[in-house]
Amino acid sequence: MSANAETLPAASASTWRLHLGWGIGTLGASLVLNGFSFLVPFYLTTVLGIGAATAAAMLFVAKSWDIVANPVMGLLSDRTSTRWGRRRPYLLLGAVVTSIGFAAVYALGLAPSLLPLPFITFVLAIVGTGYTIFNVPYMAMPAEMLDDYKERTRMMSYRVFFIGIGTFLAGGLAQRVAEWFGGGASGYAAMGVIFGAGTFVFMAAAFYGTAGARFTVRERKSVSLGEQWRTGFSNRPFVALIGTKFLQLFGMFTNTATAIFVVRFVIGRENPGEWMLWFVACAGIMQIATIPLWRRLAVAIEKQRTYILATAIFSVVSLSWLLAGPAEPLWFFCLRAALKGVAASGLLLMGQSMLPDTMEYDYRRTGLRREGIYSALYSFVEKVAAALAPSILLLVYAAVGFASRAPVQTPEAIAGIKWAAALLPCLYFALSIPCLAFYRLTEETLKNTRRT
Question: What would be the CATH architecture of the domain defined by 14-211+235-438?
Answer without folding.
Answer: Up-down Bundle (1.20)
